[in-house]
Here is the input.
Amino acid sequence: MKTPVSRRVRDLVYETFASEGRAPSVAELARRTQSTVDAIQKVLNDLAEAHALVLTPDGDAVRMAHPFTSAPMAFVVTPLDGHDDRRWWGGCAWDSFGISAALHLDVRIDTACPQCGAPISFQTGPQLPPPAGLAVRFPRPAEEWWADVVGTCTMIRAFCDRAHAEQWTTDNVPGTGYIAEATAVWRLAGPWYGDRLDPEFQPHSREHNQGLLDECGLTGPFWQLP
Ligand SMILES: [Zn+2]
Ligand SMILES: [Zn+2]
Here is the structure.
């Protein structure tokens, strides 16, 4: 059976992010699928509508294909293998673990604590959890994530510890968000993102993803997917 162009476009976006750390342009996608710019633009619109990727505000370029992002955000993901000179921007703490999971790769994640500004740098991988004590704060409930998905990712940050995440919340947006252990977010990222680059990847159902959240102890109204 011939692969539909939307699937080829989606796969090319992911392959280019994985191998080059960037999103392919519309013209590039048109050339590589022997299609037209107009047809590709329509495919991208449909993929964005289905939440398979995120376009820029003008809609003419790929901004994110989770866990990848085409623009600098708060996390840098570096392979531990010094001969592998790829680098990726991590859209958020969860996505940074997701890049490691999707690529089946041990990495170093670099970011900074929003509360104290201290650099945070640690090694992690599919079998290597992040340091105990590290905290990840989610800014808004799951049902609101996609209303502003870039904004949501921007605010899913890693903090030195729970105390810094709590202090930052009190000082900036009291009473909001959810503070999780980074190890729980790492455990979630494995099955959530681990199959993203598989040739046979199929989008997860809502029920499947809700089950993954449950298994990591992320339960209750805050974690109820829409
Ligand atoms: Zn801190
Ligand atoms: Zn994210």
Notes: The two ends are 33 Å apart (CA to CA). The chain has eight helices and ten strands.
